[in-house]
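Render this sequence as a predicted structure.
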Amino acid sequence: MALEGKRFRQRLGGEWVVAAAITIRMVACPKNRAADDLFCVLESWPGLSDNRKRLAHLPAPRLRLIALTTDLLPLRALALRMIIMDRRLDLPRRGSADLGLDLLDELGVAPTTLAIAREGYRRTGEMLAPLVALLSLENGLRDEIRDDLLPPEKMIGPLPGWALDMFTREGRAALAKILQNDAGIRQWSCDTLPVAGRVEMLAQALFRVESGMCAQRKDGPVGQMLREMMELECMGLAPDQSATLLGLVSAAIPRLNIVRTEVMGGQPNA
């Protein structure tokens, strides 16, 4: 439905009806964030720092050979990304989505999954669709479905508190205030972080303990590995420092919701 034209959706009742139906189905279905975590690894994992520079200058045939021969999933995904050259990469050369998708075919991605990845990339220009296809060869999803340990949720005016996140002006204002109001976070930040990067680091931690959580998570061993890498090794901190910050921010969410309410003009609930 989402990929059809506006007239098609109008026959079903309009944009809102279609969006609501899709959202309800997505809420009810099992979820997996491994592709999101893998993308974060490509962007920020220190274990790829040298290869990010090296692969940026290699031609597509060399990148293809790396992807076909390496045993390291992050390196294979990075080679795929450098072939495709998605719009987030600021590099002088042009990539080829067709070559990247042909590589996925060569690696053994199922035809239906490959077709979805092709259409997903055509529509969005983002790497998530090709990464989902790549992970279909790796992740080995288990039958077990679990809910993440979700933080306390509170409505603030017409919005759930987690909507006031790092991507909103009000969310960042609340983080700046909690940085001053929460004694544990303030002390840890003063001891560990430069002044200029503190709100951004809190925002990254908040995403990991709030916005990045899932109900009905269905994962496999590779997805669990990528999640741990994303949470602990992609923040620019030592893993033990990341774990400490995640614990502090998770414990501060009830207080953060109070600050969010203040930032939103004192609207406690809808």
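Summary. The chain has 15 helices and two strands. The chain has a mean pLDDT of 92.
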